[in-house]
Amino acid sequence: MSNVLLEAKGLKMHFPIKAGVIRRTVGYVKAVDGITLNVYKGESLGIVGESGSGKSTLGRMLLRLLDPTEGEVYFNGEQISNLSNRKMRPYRRDMQMVFQDPYASLNPRMTIGELLEEPLLVHKTMNTKADRKKRAEELLETVGLPKSSYNKYPHEFSGGQRQRVGIARALSTKPKLIIGDEPVSALDVSIQSQVLNLMKDLQDEFQLTYLFIAHDLSVVKHISDRVAVMYLGRIVEIAQKDSLYETPLHPYTEALISAVPSTDVTVKKEKISLKGELPSPANPPKGCAFHTRCPHAYERCKHERPEMTEQKDGHFVACHLYTDSSPSPV
Ligand code: SF4
């Protein structure tokens, strides 16, 4: 039996840009532009990139909250990217999402009990109100909230507590996969590590597989086994966490890591500043999409897109520096 839980093959999401009175398509925003990826059972895969890199769009496509322009998604070996909503329903139970903003993702008019019971009703996993209530109370205890939270409303809780409710809601259907879309970035730094620790504990307890999306490499480091770095809709580097943090290969990853503050005060790190802003995904640079900001860019980078190659065991990078024996500087 395969140990791959989720597989993406050549995934693309190109949003049309409409203009004029008749709303003609005048171009496309290439939010995700060809991603092939495996997520293994029980692992925690971090996806990192700046805002606009396409990481959240990727997460939504993997859960079939968005239908890809091109490419396929497989869950437990079954292709799910072409399933109707009805056929998709049993898979939805197995794949849940924890959203970034615990304020916006919980309906303020529903009690915590109703919010936790709603997925059980939708998926018809528990028939009686008493069973659903029992399960909701269990879930509250699982995420470290008192049973008495059941009759309260979201506004009665802090941000960290609301995110615990969001996690409990995601767990309610006993999923195999949880996609966290920046689940701690709206929280105070002091609360972030508590929520991350909780998610780590829950992963061990329930044998969950995580895809953890973040813009901050320090957040992903804590929770990931492997990390993928995205730039303008593509993965530019993917590796085991230690390999990526200790020996980053892609110049973009190097820059991101240099910006993470060191926990060791005796280590002086030099921050690599990138030139300019992230280019628009509606008009990405030709060749290597990073060449307009890369400190090592040379002529070939402007014309030819680098392919992903394996440089060390399980450490892949898309950069000409690793396939070209004598790069000539621009
Ligand atoms: Fe920089 Fe060229 Fe490598 Fe792209 S391919 S990251 S521009 S050196």
TrEMBL record:
The lineage of its organism: Bacteria, Bacillati, Bacillota, Bacilli, Bacillales. Belongs to the ABC transporter superfamily. It comes from the Bacteria. InterPro entries: AAA+_ATPase, ABC_transp_ATP-bind, ABC_transporter-like_ATP-bd, ABC_transporter-like_CS, Oligopep_ABC_C, P-loop_NTPase. Keywords: ATP-binding, Nucleotide-binding, Transport. NCBIfam families: oligo_HPY, PRK11308.1. Residues 17-257 form the ABC transporter domain. This is Oligopeptide ABC transporter ATP-binding protein. One of its GO terms (biological process) is transmembrane transport. One of its GO terms (molecular function) is ATP hydrolysis activity. SMART domains: AAA (SM00382).
